[in-house]
Amino acid sequence: MSILRVYGAASGLDTQNIIRQLLEVERRPLRQLQARKAGLQLEREAWREINSRLRTLDSRALDLRLAGTFTALRAVSAQSEVVTATAGAAAQPAVYELVVEQTARAQRVASTVAPGFAAPLSGTFAISGVTVSVAGAQTLADIQAAINGTAGIGVSANVIDGRLVLTRRETGAANPISYAYLGGDNILQQLGLFDSAAGAVLHQELQAGRNAVVRVDGLRVERAGNVLTDVISGVELTLRQESAAPVRLEIVRDSDRALEAVRAFVEQYNAVMEFIAGNMGQGGDLRGEPALLRLQATLRQQLSQQYGAVAGYASLQDLGISTREAGGTHGFSQAGKLSLDEARLLERFTADPNAFRDLFAGEQGLGRLLSNYLQSVLAFGRGAIPVRESGLEQTMAMLERQAERFNARLEMREQQLLRQFTAMERALAGLQTQGEWLAGQLRNMGGFAAPPG
Is 297 exposed, middle or buried, given 0-12, 13-18 or 19+ CB atoms closer than 10 A? Predict the structure, then answer.
């Protein structure tokens, strides 16, 4: 039901402003609810960010749990322009000497008859056992397109100086290009590639196919291609050019991969600890939060403990990952951040990569222990952080319901005040009307007339 609003018509009061001020006083608890909800929203966003950062840290810890991170090998060629190599899982650390006596090549031939055939040509022929169909060819380019457009064809065709040039797609001395006439116009014979009657090739050989020859530690190896996967166990060799002198090839531990994994972990750990410290400090959204204090302390403890001496590597400090402050004081910096001495880390890795692997990826290694802890605090529905987030969301929902009820009461209170002030204005207006009527009656009574001025 709408209320006729009369603002101060009879009383002369600014009743609209009075109502607004009264409601402002009664709205203070609502503002407190809203402020509390806003604070909880900031807390929830901070916990969500911590959750995200910890999941990234867990991913970095998982990389440290993988033995392959520290056992992977890489091949280092002293002359990459001569030979390159890739080391796989089956490779073993070793040093080889390679001499590339010759690289493999593909056969290349050219037609021996200049263009000038009677167009159009339509016919069917085979090149190395694959059928090619030509319909209405007017130029060599049409024949070239027909050959290159044939699925599974073992050659590529080009037109150079008015002649058709065919190049085998595979290298090697075996299986040279072969031809067969199948029907229609004898296109191969007209081009000077193949005499079908005599069964003789007519082409000009521009480059003979040949095998690659390489000596590995003095042992002669011959293969049809330049990519050798079965010569050194677990190693793929790619021959690029001949060499007169031996080329040194080393299969070594991939220290770059190990360093990158550790570096990425340290950087993410520092990002987590810096964010935690910032939120716990003066003005932080999670200042004094017990769950965050426990998280910070546990992370510090995880990285400062002894992991069991293996070949002298018992802690991160043994590997060059320090928890010292910049000034040299032992212990964590204020934010709990780590520093990485990459030179020392590489030195330790090179000295004993297996011990290095065990400290990070072993059953009681840092990667496994930290990952287990992180997964426990991040577990959906039961981990400390998801539970904290859920609790905040429930509290925020409760505050939202309280605010809705409070707003409803304020609306009712506003309607009540409007009715009361409207009634007051009407009553005053009635009194004023009665007063004016009485004054008029008195003026009409002569005895009560006012004396002349």
Answer: exposed
- For residue range 22-43, list pLDDT tens digits in order: 777 777 887 888 778 887 788 8
pTM of the model: 0.66
Q: What CA–CA distance (Å, rounded) separates 443 from 338?
A: 99
Judgement on whether residues 95 and 230 belong to the same structural domain of the protein: yes
HSE of 85 in the Cβ direction (CA atoms, 13 Å)? 32
Q: How is residue 152 written in tokens? A: 């599974």
Q: Which two tokens stand for residue 422?
A: 């409207």
Computed over every residue of the chain, the mean pLDDT equals: 85
- Quote the CA–CA distance of 313 and 170 in Å, as a whole number: 52
Tokens 């340290």 locate to: 266
* CA nearest neighbour of 320 among 369, 356, 374, 358: 356
Residues 272 and 333 in one domain: yes
Both tokens of 372, joined, read: 């287990």
Per-residue pLDDT tens over the stretch 358-386: 888 877 888 888 888 888 888 887 778 88
Q: How many whole angstroms separate alpha carbon 87 and alpha carbon 76?
A: 9
Residues 186 and 243 in one domain: no
Indicate whether 306 and 219 sit together in one domain: no
* Residue 313, helix vs strand vs coil: strand
The DSSP result for 33-51, as a single string, is HHHHHHHHHHHHHHHHHHH
What gap in Å lies between CA 148 and CA 151, rounded to an integer? 8
The residue count of the chain comes to: 453
Cβ neighbors of 323 (< 8 A, separation 6 or more) are 303, 304, 316, 317, 330, 331, 332, 333, 338, 339
Domain identity same for 154 and 276: no
Hey, which bits of 246-329 come out as E strands? 247-253, 321-322
The total of structural domains in the chain comes to: 3
Domain that holds residue 172: 108-207
Residues 265 and 368 occupy one common structural domain: yes
Q: What is the CA radius of gyration of the chain?
A: 45
Pull the structure tokens for residue 92: 């073993």
Residues 218 and 267 placed together within one structural domain of the fold: no
- Chain centroid offset of residue 240 CA: 35
